[in-house]
Known about the structure:
Helix 1 crosses helix 2, helix 10 packs parallel to helix 12 (384-392) and helix 11 (354-377) runs antiparallel to helix 14. It is built from 15 helices and 15 strands. It has helices at 3-9, 11-31, 56-71, 101-114, 150-166, 190-196, 200-210, 237-241, 292-309, 323-351, 354-377, 384-392, 394-397, 399-413, 418-444, and strands at residues 44-50, 77-85, 88-95, 127-130, 137-145, 171-178, 182-188, 212-221, 224-232, 244-246, 252-254, 259-265, 272-274, 277-286, 313-320. By secondary structure, the protein is α+β, with helices and mostly antiparallel strands.
Amino acid sequence: MNVSAWSIRNPTPAILLFVMLTLLGVMAFRAMKVQQFMDIDLPMVTVTASLPGAAPAQMETEVARKIENSVATLQGIKHIYTRVQDGIVTIDVEFRLEKPTQEAVDDVRDAISRIRADLPGDLKDPVISRVNLAGMPILTYTVSSSRMDDEALSWFVDNTVSKTMLSVRGVGAVSRVGGVTREIRIELDPARLLALRATAAEISRQLRQIQQDASGGRADIGGTEQSVRTIATVKSAAELGAMEIALGDGRRVRLDQLATVTDTVAEQRSAALLNGKPVVGFEIVRSRGAGEVDVADGVRARLETIKGEHPDITITEAFNFVDPVLENFEGSMWLLIEGAILAVIVVWLFLRDWRATLVSATALPLSIIPAFAVTYLMGFTLNVVTLLSLSLVVGILVDDAIVEIENIMRHLRMGKTPYQAAMEAADEIGLAVIATTFTLIAVFLPTA
């Protein structure tokens, strides 16, 4: 059946079909997310095992090699990369692309479970996670205030900013950069410990036992059942120093008689600088499947709310990886439009007929716009790859129209009526045009 001839005989269904497809394409284009690159699901698994205080040589022999030997027996492994540092081992397991990611994670977890008893007893439970390529920061902000120090600003970021940003749709994580972390420091006095014949291990063990909040079961009081809780937590460093510590000979002393208890900040292991000055910042990471532009708009709107609620806080944008994504998107769209214009110009130069050029120019949007509906239904996004693919095939989209129109023009020069010329021209080359289209599909199909 010749599609062109059928459309000529029945123009109304063909026109309505393309009107509907165009409307669906426009709606899908407005609903699609804008990203720099698509979300790639690579079958890569990361295993992180930590043993505080262990030397790299010990981590290699007692942890890394055992995990490697167990994981190496799994099916579909392509590469294993291991990094050993002081007290920590990171192993990246790369599987072949046909391996389902969730199956790869389960296989690695089972392999480590088999050798868990052979690993050092003090080793923390290995953390097994899949590699998420969407976990790169897209926005970085700094926070400053004239009435807050680094500790207060750090708590403001950890508490207020993080909770607010995580409520934004598409935000996957909020991490603080720089700043300080609160720490209750207990500095034991060696001379007093020696005089009282106490050890640091005993003090630490008792602190773990008394500094806790746990369930105490249930009790019947006045004929009603009530929950019982064991509350043994302190609210300040002074309360912690007032706690009694039991010694081995039965005596009891206060903790502040053995040590100096201070409410301070932890030692800084990282710092954030803006124009050479120390600042407290935070990074926004988008979740998988979210678009950078939508996430940035939601984050900026929520930051304006925070600024209104805290006028003494100054929030400055330090890094922005969203604007380049928007620029690439707009550049790709202009590339698509320029390609379409050039294709129409070429058609005009060769056919030298405004009606034929108009038909070819109409075929371009009627071919491109419905493609967005299919792209949206397949779960793709507007990114560099999809837009570049559309730009590459702009010229191919008018090939069939040019061949059809040129043959119709040839029949018109023979003195035939437009309807007769269109029908006979379509019958002559209809099969060839369809064969050419499927040939192009076959060429591009492997790249899909």
